[in-house]
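Researcher: Here's the sequence for the chain we discussed earlier.
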Amino acid sequence: MENNHGSDAKARSPAADPDENDRAVKAERLEKTATSSQSAQSGQDSEQPEKRDRPGKKPLIMLAVVVLVMIVVGLYFWLTTRNQETTDDAFIEGDAVTIAPRIGGYVVNLAVGDNQRVRKGDLLAQIDPRDAMAERDRAQAQLGLAEAQLHQAEVQLSLAKVQYPAQLTQARSQQVRAEANLQNAESDYRRQRNVDPRATSQQRVDNASAQVRSARADVANARAQVEVAAQVDLQIRLAASMVEARRQQVGQAKAQLETARLNLAWTDVRAPFDGYVTRRNVQPGTLVQAGSSLFSVVSPAIWVTANFKETQLERMRPGQKVNITVDAWPDRELHGHIDSIQQGTGSRFSAFPAENATGNFVKIVQRVPVKIVIDRGLDADQPLPLGLSVAPKVIIE
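Model: Thanks. This is the structure I predict for it:
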């Protein structure tokens, strides 16, 4: 049936309308275009599976390059750090001395400000010196009195060395005279007794007897005087001991005067060494006690305390060079060397050491403080405050 209609159309085509002919031509063109597009699409669909079945080489090359770069970087890092030990647990340390007065009183002068640099012997503060000056004057007067008493004792000793021997000689002379008088009195008494009673009187006999008794008393007294005067050495030693006592008093007075002078000198609080004044706790007019804190003076001589892990100490020795970077100034590098390694971990010397004998023991890596002395790189115009964090790098040789 369709073929018949087609043949009829072909038969009638010569007599058909021109517009209908144009529409037929366009329809044929559209049909050819659709057929060609379908064939092209089917051709592309057949090529895509072939391309997917063959992946490209570019991702593999990129992966290989990344792996190679990582290997090179890791090898370089290992070669450059295998002879180095570093830690972030390190800080600037130094001597910080608390300045305290030796005597109490009111602060009348404050000569320094916060964080000011001072030299050894510079005046920091002054305490009211009037009480100390009065003590010094009193001690000076006591010394003068003691020296006068010493001079007097020395004169008495010199006098005793002459006087007491003379007194002994005089006492012995008086003893001889008394004994002679006694002999004369006894001779006179015997004569009176032997004389004819008619040639003498009882009164003469009694007088002679009294003369004998008096002469005997004089002899006893003279002998006693000799015994007293004979203690010449004892008297001289007594005078000498008095001189020694006075000398001790002079020495004591000198010590008191020296103490008073020291107290007066201690009213001026001075810097014990070069450094920087920190933590000022005093103002003019403050009443301070002996030993109370006024300032802290930080010494410019600083070092680094680095707490290395115990696993890093195997090849670490005193004298090895250290490069140090400061967190506060990243562009500033210090150079030093290991001074010493503490003979004990930080936890061992803490206020509450760990008790590992208990049953809840957990093994952790211990840290050991290492003292690092800075050899060069410090700037006097830019001091490093104590406690700053640093990063030391020990060169293991």
